[in-house]
Design brief:
Low-confidence stretches: none
Oligomer: single chain
Mean pLDDT: 91
Strand content: 5-15%
Shape: globular
Structural class: alpha/beta
Distance between the termini: 34 Å
């Protein structure tokens, strides 16, 4: 089905027609329509137009209003102040537009006409290391942007650029060769838990680090092993693969707890670009984008200087011939643009890496790998803070394990669900507790602008009041309860009925969903979708308290209010799904 024009776009078109009829010389002028508190909409474009035409704005505004023929959409247009137009639409126009949205499986949300291919780089854990609270935001923000962009028609390629290469693997592999049973599992068969995989890796990492620091001969053997790894020695690579496979068991268990799908083909770590590194350096050097400086291959920038005032280069290849992150990241850009045919590259990476990515993107532009047809964006995110406003640590000053955090959120949420539950079994309470707990963690992250830091406060996150996912989930469950109790009464739109103020407010907000999704996708701003959904639940709460649904005055009014309930529920469900949050039918 074709997308449904929103009321805003319909009103915009009527105004544009009036403008060109009244002022042919201003046929292409923008009425500058926006939502308003004074009326349904306000148009401010005539002020700028009057300046351009050297006319009186109020007179021009009146002329435009007179040129708009009577119609079934615009109820009233008032010329206000120096020439603003305050516009009220008819109740019938609201209900008719919502009925068209309700008839569409996509709720009338348009596809992006200029959709392309986006590669999103997110959820980048490190092999042989535990995931901690710092890994949360990249995973949650990235997964939401994948869903939102795909919903608008974008072709999305997921990439998990895991840390699976580097000097520490020489130490780990050498230790495993000398202690061959350290990664063996206690349980037989393939069903290994993520916790067991992680405890094996942790034990091995600590033991190898202790030996590396205390035994010079082992240190020498470990360093030689790095050379073997980089040279592609089969025995060394086989050991390295064991580490990667063991880590994936663990990663998948954490992502499963986060209710996220991560597939093997999407994991292309640092090692995935090894074969491209020499060529990347050759291309940069031959084109003059990078130059040799004290033996290292560097790219210099006029506007990037160190504390001493001297230029700070991006080092692509070190003087000893080794490669740093820059070479890998630049090779990844070549792969994503050349092989995956990306038109947009989105990196969901900590804001503290902004300078690195600014230099990498500029280098890729100079090399011609990024251009007017291919853009690269860092969706930079801030830090997760504790309640005290400082970076989130345990009481012992350690970084908080992500698994512990998620388990605690589930426990807290389960307690809230149990307290409110009336007819849920223990199994249902456990299931809902998980959905509410994980939803609470995701929503707290996504409802904050990505660039800002936010406080991780579980008491606040699982609260039934305020801007939380639990509030939204309960609003959805309440609607489902009403729809179940409706009996023979079915949701049906009745455009002939007058709407109460809270019905109008809810209807107008529902109508803005399509434009909001387009804006969220274009700006990579999932917090805008979270804010919209919270406002939707708030409008619904007001409507519910002011307008009896099942005890409305007439059967038609019951049906119309059930229709508003059902469309609100579908919009909440769709919006929350795009954020990666479940909406249980009963709570």
């Amino acid at each position: 089905m074709a997308s449904v024009p929103s009321l805003a776009s319909t009103v915009q078109q009527r105004l544009a027609d009036g403008l060109s009829a009244a002022l042919p010389e201003a046929a292409s002028a923008d009425p500058l329509l926006r939502r308003s508190d004074r009326a349904d909409f306000q148009a401010n474009g005539i002020l700028a137009l009057a300046k351009q035409l050297k006319g009186n704005p109020r007179e021009l505004a009146t002329k435009v209003v007179d040129a708009i023929p009577a119609n079934d959409v615009l109820k009233e247009i008032e010329v206000s102040g120096p020439g603003f137009l305050n516009i009220t639409v008819t109740d019938a126009a609201i209900v008719n537009t919502l009925a068209a949205r309700a008839a569409d499986a996509r709720l009338g949300v348009p596809f992006n006409e200029s959709a392309g291919t986006t590669v999103i780089d997110y959820a980048q854990p490190n092999v042989a290391k535990e995931m901690h609270v710092g890994h949360l935001r990249s995973a949650v923000i990235g997964a939401a942007m994948v869903e939102i962009l795909e919903f608008t028609g974008e072709t999305v390629v997921r990439r998990h650029h895991i840390g699976d290469w580097g000097t520490q693997f020489g130490m780990l592999i050498q230790y495993l060769i000398e202690h061959p049973h350290e990664l063996d599992h206690k349980t037989e068969g393939d069903d290994v838990s993520g916790e067991e995989a992680m405890s094996n890796l942790n034990r091995l990492y600590k033991a190898s680090r202790t030996l590396f620091d205390s035994d010079e001969e082992f240190k020498t053997r470990a360093r030689a092993r790095v050379v073997d790894l980089q040279a592609g020695d089969p025995e060394t690579l086989a050991m390295w693969q064991r580490f990667v496979d063991e880590s994936k068991i663990y990663f998948y268990s954490v992502f499963e707890k986060l209710d996220m799908d991560i597939d093997d083909p999407d994991i292309v770590g640092e090692s995935g670009y090894n074969d491209m590194l020499h060529e990347t350096c050759r291309l940069l050097e031959e084109s003059g984008v990078a130059v040799r400086s004290e033996g290292a291959l560097c790219v210099f920038f006029d506007d990037v200087k160190g504390p001493d005032g001297n230029p700070t280069p991006l080092i692509v290849q070190k003087s000893d011939g080794g490669f740093g992150y820059a070479a890998t990241d630049l090779s990844a850009i070549r792969d994503r643009v050349g092989n995956l045919k990306a038109t947009s590259l989105v990196y969901v990476v900590d804001a503290r890496q902004s300078l690195h990515f600014k230099m990498v993107f500029e280098t890729a532009r100079r090399a011609g790998w990024l251009n007017d047809d291919v853009k690269a964006v860092q969706l930079a995110f801030g830090t997760v803070l504790g309640k005290d406003g400082k970076p989130f640590k345990t009481r012992e000053g350690e970084t908080v394990r992500l698994v512990d955090l998620l388990d605690e959120a589930i426990d807290r949420a389960s307690a809230v669900v149990r307290e409110k539950a009336q007819d849920l079994t223990e199994q249902e309470i456990a299931e809902r507790g998980t959905q509410v707990g994980i939803g609470a963690v995701k929503y707290a992250d996504l409802s904050t602008s990505a660039a800002r830091d936010y406080k991780f406060d579980l008491d606040q996150m699982v609260s039934l009041n305020g801007d939380t996912s639990v509030y939204l989930q309960y609003a959805y469950a309440r609607i489902q309860s009403i729809l179940r109790k409706a009996g023979d009464a079915k949701p049906a739109a009745h455009p002939e009925l007058a709407l109460a103020p809270s019905e109008r407010a809810l209807g107008l907000h529902l109508d803005a969903f399509g434009e909001l999704i387009a804006e969220t996708a274009a700006e990579y701003a999932p917090h805008k979708l979270a804010a919209y959904l919270y406002q939707l639940a708030s409008h619904y709460t007001t409507f519910y308290s002011e307008c009896p649904v099942l005890k409305a005055d007439t059967p038609e009014q019951v049906e119309n209010r059930l229709f508003l309930c059902e469309l609100t529920a579908r919009t909440l469900h769709q919006g929350m799904a795009l954020l990666g949050i479940r909406t249980p039918e009963r709570l």
